[in-house]
Amino acid sequence: MLSKRRACFKAVVVYLTLLTMFGILFVNHIRTNLNSTNEVFRHLDNKIKQKWTPSIEVLNEKRYKKEPEDKSLKRVTFNISKTPEIVCIDFTGRLGNLMYGYAFLYAMARSKGLFPVIPDDSSLPKFFNVQNTTLSSIGKSKKACATLPSYKERWALSYDEKLTQVPQIKGANFFGYFQSWKYWIPFEEEIRDVFQFNEPIKSKAVAQFNAILRQRHFTIGRESVVVSIHVRREDYLSKENIKFGYLIPNATYFRKAMRYFRKKFKNVFFIVGSNDIPWCREALAGEPNVHFSVGNSAVEDMALLSLSNHTIASVGTYGWWIGWMAGGITLYYKNMFVPGSDFAKTFRNESTEDFIYPGWILME
User: Fold this and answer.
1) Please, how many CA atoms are within 13 Å of residue 22, restricted to the half-sphere of its CB?
2) What residue ranges do the domains of the chain occupy?
3) In this structure, are residues 363 and 333 in contact, taking their beta carbons and an 8 Å threshold?
4) Pick the CATH number of 201-363 from 3.10.180, 2.40.30, 3.30.70, 3.40.50
5) What DSSP letter does each residue of 192-210 carry, written as one string?
6) Which tens digits make up the pLDDT trace of 12-51?
7) Contact 247/241 with Cβ under 8 angstroms?
């Protein structure tokens, strides 16, 4: 009987010993994991607290990437032998309009399996990473587009879903302005790659941007940003355009937009591009940290302004593309047209929803 009690006692002692050892190991395991977790949080907290002040060169590398952000995305090259049917559009207008036209053309070619045709004298391949897909480059007649079924948009500044319903792998000729991001949003990253500026436009813009900030002793950081301002005026003030229903913002809009960014960030530097710089100098007189861009061509100014962190746009497609290229916050003028005017009718139901890029802020 005594031997049984001793055996039972030993078993209890062994059990308690093992339980104690397990408890100690468990506590140490928890303590180690907690320390490790706390270390991770401390690391993240330190990263957050660190003031991020990238060099201008780093900023420009992000703006002018050599490859699309999506590493799995391969640059598309159109080949007439693989897509024998062509798609054409009636390119009209200046730089901003031409870019809208090409973005639409590109999307139609990609989605319908067609070869996109640009004019022989197109400036787009000189400015951007646009493939030189002319009729002459594929040995087709200059009248080839005219023989295709034609389609005309219903609204110049709204999405027309009927245009996207044309047959697959069937040649088509489109007429319009196609000023809606909805046409090409499925191929947006490819479009960003296409609209990368060529040399020497890129190099000149980067050099100008760096020189401007160095001269003003301005350094970009988390609380220090550069905001581009595009002011569209002269051509919008013609009698024909005023009668058509175009509206442009006054100085109050630009000053209000500048205040918006000054409240949001500690230090703000503005770069102004316009077809009416004298008006801009007068309208923005007294505003600190402002540089007025002069002497550039339209595409050179676009390249320069697109390097900013954020954008203040007035009206028109030129400023639209600057905001899209720059990314960040974009303020766009709300009152683009006179209600009931001919220009208002170029928007479906007089709505700017299909024209204004998602996330942009309308201001008046």
Assistant:
1) 6
2) 86-194, 201-363
3) yes
4) 3.40.50
5) HHHTPBPTTHHHHHHHHHH
6) 444 555 455 545 444 444 343 333 333 323 322 332 232 2
7) no
